[in-house]
Amino acid sequence: MGDTSSGWSSLDTMIPSMCPRLSTDKIEYFFPQAPITPITLNGGELVPAWFDLYDYPVDSTTKDDVMGQLNAVCMLEETVKKVELERGIPASRIVVGGFAQGGAVAMLASFFRKARRQQPFAGCICLSGWLPNSWCFPVNKYVAEMTPLLWCHGSYDGQVLHHASRLGVNRLRNEGIDVHDKTYPCGHESYNLKEIEDMAEFIDDVLFPKVPPKDVMKDVITAEFVSSVMYLFEQNAEQYNP
Questions:
Q1: How many helices (H) and strands (E) does the chain have?
Q2: Percent of the chain, pLDDT > 70?
Q3: In angstroms, rounded to a whole number, what is the distance separating the alpha carbons of residues 125 and 151?
Q4: Stated pTM of the model
C-alpha cells in the first residue's frame, strides 16, 4: 500500500545478479501497478493499494475487504492471461508474488481462485504479507502439490505482525502446500539482501527443477476415471455379463 511498481522494478537486475539463469534474456519480469484506492484506515486517503484496510497493525483478527481482495485477484489473473496470450508463457512457468497486500493477493490467486481446473502457477512468493482470514475454503489438492510457496517475513514487523504470518504458514501447510518460510531480524522494510537471495534461489528451483515434477494431473485423472468405472459397475452389476 502506498508503493508503486517502479519501487520493485530493480529486481529484474538484482535477481539475475544472484542467479544467472534468471537473466532477462531467459526470464521476463512484470511489475503490475496497484490501482488508486481509498483507504478507510487513513480516513479515505487515495493511495496505490490492492484493497481497502480497516485495522492496524494487521494480525489474526484483521477485518477483510473481501470484495476488494476478489477484485485484486481478478486483476492479477487478467495480467496472467495477457502474459499467456501475448508472450506464450503458460501458468505452469509463471511465479507470482508480492509485498504486504501484494503478497496476500498473490496467495489468494495461487491457492484459492485456482480451485477450478486451471493450470497452477509454478510458484508463489509472499513478502511481509498475510493470508486474509475470510478465505477459508479448502485448497485444491492438485494446486497444493504443484505450487510451492516462499513466505518471507521480518520478526520485528510492526505493520503486518509476524504472528499473522505464522498462522498463515501453518494453515497452508495443513492444506498440503510446500511452504518455505523464512524469518529475518528486521521490520517491515520493502526487502533486504538476504531476502532477495532467497527469492532468487526459490525462483531458480521452481523454474529449473533438478528433478522433473511428477505428472500429478495424470494420476488425478486416472484415479477419477477408475473411481467412475467402479461406481458404474457397482450400480449395474446385475446387467453385467462378461
A1: 7, 6
A2: 80
A3: 6
A4: 0.83
